[in-house]
Design a protein that fits this description.
Layout (H helix, E strand, L loop, with lengths): L1 H16 L1 H8 L5 H15 L1 H17 L3 H23 L4 H7 L2 H13 L6 H21 L4 H23 L5 H24 L5 H29 L1 H8 L2 H13 L5 H5 L1
Helix pairs in contact: 1-11, 1-12, 1-13, 2-11, 2-13, 3-5, 3-10, 3-11, 5-9, 5-10, 6-13, 7-8, 7-9, 7-12, 10-11, 11-12
Length: about 270
Amino acid sequence: MKTASLLMGLLAGILFGVATPVSKILLSSMNSFQLAGLLYIGAALAFLPYVAKNRLKELSWIRATAKKKSIVGIVVFGGFLGPLFLLLGLSLARSSSVSVWLNMELVATAILGVAFFKDHLDIPAVFGVLLTVAAGVVMSFQDGFGSIAPALFVTLACFCWGIDNHLTAIVDGASPKMITFIKGIFAGSTNLIIGTLVSGRGFPLYALALALLTGIVSYGLSIVLYVSSAQHLGATRSQILFSTGPFWGILTALVVLGESMSIYAIIA
């Protein structure tokens, strides 16, 4: 079971990582609210068949659970604020830079875990956190002072997802598929409505299809894999595996978007 959980955490990171450069492309067709909404609606759609089949059992658990506040927190921080802050940062910076900054989610999860969720970090975990911080600092120096605003947005996203990670790990009686569906429907719809009202316009059909597909794969399947891993390994340890995702985001940005990056940032 431990090996399977390790592999699920790693695959979750890969699928999530490639979403950043794809989202950068989509931001040319829609605003951050709209894209955040569509990504999470796509995640919900991925598990609509499961929810339709198991709705009675799942809804019974939700009504009976004493962790309703945790579920609300997952929706607000993980589904609404997290992706919104990420895409606001992505709209102001290169995809490869944001991919590196996303590793701050590991730092945020570790800090929150030690401070509020009674997590304990061993020496290798502390070393990994320090390396992550160093990578973010190197990346910021490479991009100059103009990177401060997007870096702050991405850091806020990472802390939102850090809260989401810990709340998800303690809501262990719920199906990961149901958690993802609830998060996607409520938070995704809210962001999409806000974004459409703000922009006053729609978006091309191809952008809609690509955004939903990205949501299904990178925010649906990826999140469920992460949740399954976190419930067996704990939020901080599974987050270390998940944090390999930005590497795949950087690689995709270099190949698909033609972005450049200094060797120092890649090494860091």
